[in-house]
């Protein structure tokens, strides 16, 4: 399924989730895989709980449905599809997007910037510190026709991660809180941290 088609379906949904235990009626469920779980195993449970669509990458789920109203949609890679959908969704809105990164202070800075902007503008901001390859797309998918600003926190633990998040979020301006020596293991050196941030 093309991203444009999937986006049309998404716009008819009540939201998006990756947790089959927290299904909002009419939501789109993304069956992500982790070290200890495979979201495909919970796709039918998500549909039974009220999800309108379950985005899966297990071919045996192709065409699976609940009473012909709630469907599994098979894609090649669920995480890649989530990220592409979020990037496409972001492109539909001509609004300022503030990207925030740094070694320390990202979440506090994001909360402060969001609080200031929210006083005047309808603002979508990253919840908590959900600042990775899953959290950033989930935040972007909360942007609606009423949204006037977005504040996106971006974190990284390895080289290239911020660049990938920037490609999805397309911030119109950015804040780097600081660049320190945390996370050296993932970056290899302080130079690696500086280059990524």
Question: Could you write a compact summary of the structure shown?
Answer:
This protein has 197 residues and is an alpha/beta fold.
Structural class: alpha/beta
* SS field, number of helical segments: 8
Major sheet: arrangement of strands: 1-2-3-5-4
CATH A-level architecture of the largest domain: 3-Layer(aba) Sandwich
Shape: globular
Straight-line distance between termini: 34 Å
Unreliable stretches (pLDDT < 50, length at least 5) are none
Specify Rg, calculated over alpha carbons: 18 Å
Task: Count the beta strands.
Answer: 9
What's the name of the CATH homologous superfamily of the largest domain? Mur-like, catalytic domain
Number of spatially distinct domains = 2
Describe what you observe in this structure.
This protein is α/β, with parallel strands linked by helices and 197 residues long. It folds into 2 domains: 3-77, Udp-n-acetylmuramoylalanyl-d-glutamate--2,6- Diaminopimelate Ligase, Chain: A, domain 1 (3-Layer(aba) Sandwich); 93-196, UDP-N-acetylmuramoyl-L-alanine:D-glutamate ligase (3-Layer(aba) Sandwich). Helix content is 35%, strand content 17%. The protein contains 8 helices and 9 strands. The chain has helices at residues 3-11, 43-48, 78-91, 106-118, 135-140, 161-169, 184-187, 190-196, and strands at residues 16-17, 28-30, 53-56, 65-66, 70-74, 97-101, 123-125, 149-153, 173-176. The chain has a 5-stranded mixed beta sheet. A 4-stranded parallel beta sheet has the order 7-8-6-9, sandwiched between helices. β7 (123-125), α5 (135-140) and β8 form a beta-alpha-beta unit. α1 crosses α3 (78-91). The model has no long low-confidence stretch (mean pLDDT 92).
């Amino acid at each position: 399924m093309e991203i444009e088609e999937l986006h049309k379906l998404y716009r008819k949904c009540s939201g998006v989730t990756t947790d089959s235990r927290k299904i909002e009626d009419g939501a789109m469920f993304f069956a992500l895989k982790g070290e200890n779980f495979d979201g495909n195993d919970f796709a039918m449970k998500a549909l039974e709980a009220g999800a309108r669509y379950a985005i899966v990458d297990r071919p045996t789920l192709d065409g699976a449905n609940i009473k012909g109203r709630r469907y599994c949609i098979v894609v090649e890679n669920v995480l890649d599809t989530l990220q592409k959908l979020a990037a496409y969704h972001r492109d539909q809105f001509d609004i300022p997007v503030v990207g925030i990164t740094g070694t320390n202070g990202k979440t506090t800075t994001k909360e402060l910037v969001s609080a200031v902007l929210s006083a005047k503008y309808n603002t979508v901001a990253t919840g908590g510190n959900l600042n990775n390859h899953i959290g950033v797309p989930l935040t972007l998918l909360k942007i609606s026709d009423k949204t006037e600003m977005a504040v996106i926190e971006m974190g990284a633990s390895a080289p290239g991660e911020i660049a990938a998040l920037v490609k999805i979020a397309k911030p119109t301006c950015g804040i780097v809180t600081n660049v320190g020596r945390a996370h050296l293991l993932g970056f290899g050196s302080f130079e690696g941290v500086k280059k990524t941030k």
